[in-house]
Amino acid sequence: MEKTIFSLCLTCMLSMGAVMAQVANYDVVPLPQTVNLSAKPGFVLNESVSIMYPEGNADMQRNARFLSDYVKEMTQLVLGSQPLPAKAKLAKVGQGNVVLTLDASIQNEEGYTISVTDKNVTISGKTPAGVFLGIQTMRKSLPVLNEKPQAVTLPAVSIADEPRYAYRGMMLDCARHFFTVDFVKEYIDLLALHGMNRFHWHLTEDQGWRFEVKKYPKLTQIGAWRSGTTVGKNSGVDDGVLHGGFYTQDECREIVKYAADRYVTVIPEIDMPGHMLGALASYPELGCTGGPYEVSHLWGIFPDVLCMGKENTFKFIEDVLDELVAIFPSEYIHIGGDECPRTRWAECPLCQQRIKDEGLVAQEGKSKEDLLQGYFTRRIEKYLHEKGKKLIGWDELLNCNVDQSSTIMSWRGAEPGAKAAKLGHDVIMSPNKPMYFDHYQTDNLAHEPLAIGGLETVKDVYAFEPVAKELSADDARHILGVQANLWTEYVAYPHHAEYMVLPRMAALAEVQWLQPDSKDYDAFMVRLKRLKEIYDLHQWTVAQHVFK
Ligand code: ACM
Ligand code: ZN
Q: Where are the beta strands (DSSP E) in 130-184?
């Protein structure tokens, strides 16, 4: 009875601007595939509502907790949660409540449905991950209220959604600049808010090694620290300030768990055989010349890389991977493979001996040193396979004769991704145009913080189509998903990192979720303005260009 009165009141509330905000709105980012609004009375969400989850299901119980936290954060309403016994009659017990359920009839692993009637709200997923994604949609539908209302009305609706891509990622470079565990968690929160499920964690670089390896303590005693950083773009002026830090294995486990609770998989990257000065400064015997080496103060690509001729190099990498895979349950391990100069290998007797021993001979556009990286990568991939893991590498691997089983991350444009798919590799599309969020986001640089260059507007990100026209349907199946990358040469602080990813992440989310014919930039901009209220609620630093 009380509910009917509230529903009737909805009409008068709608005519009163001030209270209008107490009604949910399903115009969210990413837009669900189907949103069928009904003229019937909606659901009245007030503090007598409980969130119910299947008894004995810890994942669903955690989902219920997330939903009640989000409802509180958005509306101030405090909702309890309770288990729904398996034998309980849902129609009876669920009456007046929000019910989280698993529904095996949903096809997609991350698919979900939301049903809102005047009787109850049901959020169903094939898996708890799907339910969590439905919860994110519900969360973003709620109004941001500074004062606790009597109730929030959820208009009656039937929503069904599933993501276009299974791999929906963002990368954070914690090696050029170190970011705290708290900020890494915040970044994972951003992924969850945007319906993303892969956190690619770039952990090693010329400028710092960030992953604790018990067998090689110098990696974090020496390799994690640089005694200064160039000012600006290799200006010749060094700030002389010690910069560094690393993640202990316990902290890595903590982050893996934090992400897993939010259905985000952490994919760690140990970049090899180039971008290795952090390791070489710690263990110079791993390089061709034997050093000495220094953790770099400068940005760029450096000639000193791992020596491919020494068996110790392989032992080192295998030992590091042993400790890595014991912590990161991800099926994929990223081994980098980008920007590895051949200078030292061309001069190193041990590397040249390896080339001879392996019978590597230059061929169509591939030098023998290119093939040496291929030899290295295939050997590392075999090792990862023995550990039950798959390999991802940057698209330079396409020039090294690596096996078709390696997954290629296309970054030097979208063309390498298309080429890789045609060759039968699985592919993640992360082309620098427009998915490098370290690039500028406006052409008016007067008030912009220094960036590496480029120009990738929100609109550019939104317009990106991951499947090249020339790909057949079979080839297109190799495109596993899309990712944007935040490299941090010029991004040293959390608020700056936020500024670079917000709101471009929102545009990426629609690329990852929506079918191409559902995309509409102007309609997205309306949805984005609502999402920004959540950014503001969290006091994240948001680039304002598209909101002006
Ligand atoms: C890269 O940007 N070097 C992968
Ligand atoms: Zn060598």
A: 152-154, 157-161, 167-173
